[in-house]
Predict the structure.
Amino acid sequence: MAPRRLLGLVAVLVPAAAHASGVCENTGTTYGVPTLFAEATEAFAVPATLAWCEERDRGGVLDEVRGTIAFTELRDVHGKVLGVLSAARGKDAKRLEAAVGAFDKVATGKLASTLKARGYARIVPQGRTRAARCTVRAAWTSTRGTYHDGFPAGLLAVEVWAGKQRALRYEVGPAAEARRGDEKIVAHFLARRGAIALFVRRPTCAGPPPGYFGPDDPGDCYAVDEVSTTLLDAKTGDLARCFPSP
C-alpha cells in the first residue's frame, strides 16, 4: 500500500569516503543507532564517528596517520541538524570543527547527563500504542542490474505493520548489496501527535567499483552511511490504526 502523504522528508548525505586509490583513502563519517529522542524539539540524538587521516612525508615516502573522533548529532524529524556535541579537544576538536562546523564541547563522561538536561529520553519501544500493536521494519528488494555508485544495489524500504496488516510501505532508495544487513530503522512513536518519528540509515559503497582495475577486479567497498529522518503522521497510509482515536 503506497503512502498518501509524507511529512518533512529530508535525505541527508554524510561525507563520502574518499574515492582515490592511495594514501588516506576510505575516510568519512559512520553513524550509529540513536536510542534517545527529545519530544520538545522532535529530534534524535545520533551517535557518530568521524574517521580522519593525515599524510606524513617520511624521507620522501608518503605515510598516513589515522584516528577517529566520537560526536553526537542532534537531528530533528525534518533533517535539520540542531547541534553537535563532543568531548573532542585540541587537534581533534579542530579536525571535527573542520568537518561538521562549530560544536558544543562536553566534558568527558558528561554526555548522558547533558542530553538528559536537554530533554532527551529513551525511545519508546515499537508497538506500545493502545489502539494496535504496530511495528516498523526494514524491507529489502534485490534487483538485478541495479547499481549505485558503480556497486550492485538493492532497494531499501520501510514497512509499518499493524498486527498482520501492512499499514504503510515507504521506499527509501538504493543500498549496497555488499552491505546488506547494515541498514537500520529506528522509529519513535509520538502518541500525543499520532505520528511516528523515523530515522533511517541506508548503507552504500564508495571507492573503486567492480571492474575499476580490470574485468576480474571485484571492487573495494568503502562503507558510507546515508541517513535521513522524517515524520509520518496518522494520515499517512493507514497509520491511523496505530494510534487511539481522539
